[in-house]
UniProtKB/TrEMBL annotation:
It comes from Amycolatopsis japonica. One of its GO terms (molecular function) is ATP binding. PROSITE patterns: ABC_TRANSPORTER_1, ABC_TRANSPORTER_2. Pfam families: ABC_tran. Residues 5-245 form the ABC transporter domain. SUPFAM superfamilies: P-loop containing nucleoside triphosphate hydrolases. Keywords: ATP-binding, Nucleotide-binding. This is ABC transporter domain-containing protein.
Length: 261
């Protein structure tokens, strides 16, 4: 199996604040690695290192076996690492197909006579979306008229079309209802089945478990554990996410305090 990304004991500090410490995981082609944790767990810091926004201070970051320190998101993108952030980089009033290309629009003509190739843009977008199983009636409609789930799916299809090997998804289901979240997870599985390595960032184990192949649990910048799917079930994953051990210790303390001496 092709190993696309690997982080080994990666750490990051901002001044005296330790944002990430000794975190390790892998991302394989055709698999989903899910990073779970509440707010402040270090998920955003890990994404930013993988996406080339920030550089790690300690440990190793390997892309297809080669140690890297990206100087910019462009460098990460050039290595096939595409990141879809929670706030989606879309222009709501612009059409779906223009948002699909955004900065890489097809053109006809040369030099000062170059013009947008609208027909090719529309057809390419419709086919790319259709290949991912997304059926949009009209790619000329403003992207702002789509549901949150549909917008996420357009962003996923865009990354796949432009040759991403690794797709990093930042809380893609966070603001969605149950049905819309299910739609997005279906397209996450589609991207995985097309051979991409997917990094799914979420705080919801119920969204993570159906599609993930491995889990990395973070809390306050430290790994609580890394598991293959065969090593952990949904109940235990949820218990760890909810701080099960801490809750049990608290319950024990409360019982001890309540019991007559």
């Amino acid at each position: 199996m092709s190993r696309l990304l690997e982080v080994k004991d990666v750490g990051k500090t901002y001044g005296s604040v330790i944002a990430l410490r000794d975190v390790s995981t892998v991302v394989n082609a055709g698999e989903v690695t899910c990073v779970l944790g509440d707010n402040g767990a270090g998920k955003s810091t890990l994404i930013k290192i993988l996406a080339g926004v920030h550089q790690h201070d300690r440990g190793e970051f390997l892309v297809e076996g080669e140690p890297v320190k990206f100087a910019s998101p462009r460098e990460a993108l050039d290595r096939g690492i595409a990141t879809v952030y929670q706030d989606l980089a879309v222009v709501p009033l612009m059409s779906v197909w223009r948002n699909f290309f955004l900065g890489s629009e097809p053109t006809v003509g040369f030099g000062p006579f170059r013009a947008l190739d609208r027909k090719k843009g529309r057809e390419t977008t419709k086919k790319a979306l259709s290949d991912m199983g997304i059926d949009l009636r009209d790619v000329e409609q403003p992207v702002g008229t789509l549901s949150g789930g549909e917008r996420q799916c357009v962003a996923i299809a865009r990354a796949v079309y432009f040759g991403a090997k690794v797709l990093i998804l930042d809380e893609p289901t966070a603001a969605l209802g149950v049905k819309q979240a299910g739609v997005v997870l279906k397209y996450v599985a589609q991207a995985r089945d097309r051979g991409l390595g997917v990094v799914l960032i979420t705080h919801n184990p119920h969204h993570a478990y159906p599609v993930a192949d491995r889990f990395l649990l973070l809390k306050r910048g430290v790994s609580l554990g890394a598991y293959e799917k065969s090593e952990i079930d949904l109940a235990e994953l949820t218990r760890q996410m909810a701080g099960g051990a801490e809750l049990e210790a608290l319950e024990h303390e409360l019982r001890a305090a309540e019991s007559p001496s």
